[in-house]
Write a structure and sequence with these properties.
The complex is a heterodimer of chains A (488) and B (141). By secondary structure, chain A is mainly α. Helix content of chain A is 77%, strand content 0%. Helices cover 57% and strands 0% of the residues of chain B. The N terminus of chain B is likely disordered. Chain B is mainly alpha-helical and 141 residues long. The chains are: A mainly alpha (488), B mainly alpha (141). Chains A and B meet through helix 5, helix 10, helix 11 and helix 13 of A and helix 5 and helix 7 of B.
Chain lengths: 488, 141
């Protein structure tokens, strides 16, 4: 057993221990388990919301994107920032509504606002279809990280199984408390490791940041600016806007709002989170440093850039520490996804079928569903082929389709009717599915100007969604009007 | 508007000269504004009341400080939140004008430096919005 493995194993045990300890002194009712008794202060809410920034996607993908494509990676910094600006205004009313109506999930919110169980089921299904591939992505990342950082001593399959067992175990016991406690360890580790890597590697290999970017500009002219075609300015702006809107639509992020003990806690976070995600800048530096030092990675292998350059530079024990950080970036978001998916199935699917179930039964079922969901995700991780990759690409676009009806429901007089909301979401999701599965994109339409071709295709789905929502709402509104007049 | 006029319950039934002492944030400028607001309402309500002579008409309304402190103040302070539009312009529209590698700023390519700078400014903007948002002064945590 080498030094790296010892550290990775220690990290896994630390996660398990923290996850279990988190439940101490609390009776794990449904409210404690899923939304932390709505009592989290600024720090925990901050860590849960920040948990979304550092998933394996940003850790591996952020550096990989900078390594493989350069400037287009900047979009990750921008959309987070804008999502936090939106969060200041959008989240407090959501939080207040959730507290007043004792909501547990994102689907609950739609059920209440639109007074429709059917809409709730639809939202829950969209959520679950988006969440499972996201969980698979975390497990896949975990496997890659442990295999590389452990110098091949542990196969990725073994790593995935142990990761899944650990996360399922502590989620069953501690719920969202486990996620919060482990995220403390995760964020401390990531701060130290990523900032160090981002500063050290440019200096070690190039003598400084400035000379690194100068060297890159010389070797690959235009690498640090957006290209004229493809991932161009038009792609950049449309993607930033689209992903900023979708950011808080992820059901596990949405539900972590419910854990706050007050609206001010959430608003305060809107000041700090933009600064905090600047740490991603250091992830980019790692990717840029690697682009000239470990060239040759292509396709999905660009995600290995961070580990390739680390293995080339550092002793095994330090690579192990980076690996341990990577393990946490997989486990913490994984735990939130797992818990959210289990809650959605128990609270929004099972309860619709069996309305007499009380909170205690739903809580028990949700906890029992945790290992089941984990198993499904492990199965897809190990067996899933292209389908899961396709689902993954769709996940973000899927949850973004919830945005229009959510936003409208926050208005004092909601323009959207429940039929409109449902039709809009269905139309949007269908558009996303068709576009993703057929691989269609605007580039196929040669007659369009190249600016329009470069737009993120997700804009189309959102536009279809919105149009359908308006038309159907207008149509169903007129039907509803006579009765409301009569009531007055 | 320089500060928030929160007229505390102690102000009730006191003349304006005392209100200044009661409330530390009440600067002359705000006071004038408050008096102005009160006068508009006072002319409306004075008919229904028996105004006492020798007292400023504004006092009439300040004694029931509710409308001044809740509605008008809210509307004015909340207009600060429109600053939140700026980050969207800077990060969605801005890149079209700054998509270049040089000059390097603090060792960063120009486009990246622009983005980083605006993230810092965004945080500052959110801090200003937070500080002026009347919603953060309620008792809710």
């Amino acid at each position: 057993m080498n030094g790296a493995l010892v550290i990775i194993a220690a990290a896994a045990l630390l996660a398990l221990a923290l996850g279990f300890l988190a439940s101490r002194g609390k009776e794990m009712s449904l409210e404690q388990w899923t939304v932390g008794g709505r009592g989290f202060g600024a720090i925990f809410v901050f860590l849960l919301l920040a948990g979304e920034i550092y998933t394996t996607f940003t850790f591996l993908g952020g550096s990989g994107y900078a390594y493989g494509k350069g400037a287009p990676a900047y979009y990750i910094l921008c959309y987070g920032t804008l999502a936090y600006v939106l969060s200041y205004f959008m989240l407090p009313p959501i939080w207040r509504y959730a507290r007043d109506h004792r909501l547990y999930s994102q689907s609950d919110f739609f059920v209440r606002k639109y007074d429709s169980q059917t809409l709730g089921v639809l939202v829950a299904l969209v959520d679950i279809v988006a969440l499972i591939p996201y969980l698979v992505l975390q497990f896949k990342g975990l496997g890659i990280i442990v295999e590389i950082a452990g110098y091949g001593a542990i196969s990725s399959t073994a790593a995935i199984w142990s990761g899944a067992v650990i996360v399922a175990a502590y989620v069953m016991v501690s719920g969202v408390h486990g996620s919060a406690w482990t995220s403390v360890a995760k964020d401390s580790l990531i701060l130290v490791v990523v900032v160090f890597l981002g500063i050290y590697l440019p200096y070690h290999y190039y003598g400084g940041l400035g000379s690194m970017f100068a060297a890159i500009e010389q070797a690959k002219p235009g690498f640090t600016v957006l290209p004229a075609h493809g991932e161009s300015l038009w792609w950049f702006s449309s993607t930033v806007l689209l992903t900023a809107l979708g950011f808080y639509m992820w059901p596990h992020t949405f539900a972590s709002i419910y854990t706050a003990k007050g609206a001010r806690v959430i608003r305060k976070n809107a000041i700090v989170l933009p600064l905090y995600q600047l740490i991603l800048l250091f992830v980019f530096f790692v990717g840029f440093a690697a682009s000239l030092q470990v060239p040759g990675l292509t396709g999905s292998n660009i995600d290995l850039a961070l580990f390739k350059i680390s293995a080339k530079t550092f002793d095994p024990w330090f690579v192990g520490l980076i690996g341990a950080t990577g393990v946490f970036t997989a486990l913490v978001p994984g735990s939130m996804i797992l818990m959210t998916a289990a809650t959605l199935i128990a609270n929004n699917l099972y309860r619709t079928v069996n309305p007499s179930a009380d909170d205690r039964q739903v809580a028990r079922l949700a906890k029992l569903l945790v290992p089941v969901v984990a198993l499904v995700a492990v199965f897809f991780t190990l067996k899933g082929g292209d389908t899961i990759v396709a689902l993954l690409l769709m996940g973000y676009s899927f949850v973004t389709q919830l945005f229009p009806s959510l936003l409208l429901s926050l208005a004092r007089r909601n323009f959207a009717t429940r039929e409109g909301a449902m039709a809009g979401i269905l139309a949007g999701v269908a558009t996303v599915a068709v576009v993703s599965l057929t691989g269609a994109n605007l580039h196929a339409l040669k007659w369009l100007p190249s600016e329009v071709q470069d737009l993120n295709i997700g804009i189309v789905a959102l536009a279809v969604n919105f149009a359908v929502l308006i038309v159907v709402s207008l149509a169903t509104r007129q039907v509803a009007q006579p009765s409301s007049v009569a009531a007055e | 508007l320089p500060a928030v006029v929160v007229l505390p319950p102690q102000v009730e039934n006191r003349p304006l000269s005392q209100a200044i002492m009661v409330h530390p944030r009440l600067t002359p400028g705000i006071l004038l504004w408050a008096v102005d607001q009160a006068r508009i309402k006072a002319t409306r309500s004075a008919f229904g009341r028996k105004a006492t002579p020798n007292r400023p008409i504004a006092w009439l309304e300040l004694s029931s400080a509710g409308p001044v402190s809740s509605t008008t103040r809210f509307r004015l302070m909340r207009s600060v939140r429109w600053l939140a539009v700026i980050p969207f312009l800077a990060l969605v529209v801005g890149p079209f004008f700054v998509n270049r590698a040089t000059p390097m700023i603090l060792d960063l390519p120009f486009l990246l430096a622009w983005i980083v700078a605006w993230i810092l400014i965004t945080s500052a903007i959110m801090a200003v919005i937070y500080a002026t948002d009347p919603a953060n002064r309620s008792d809710e945590p």
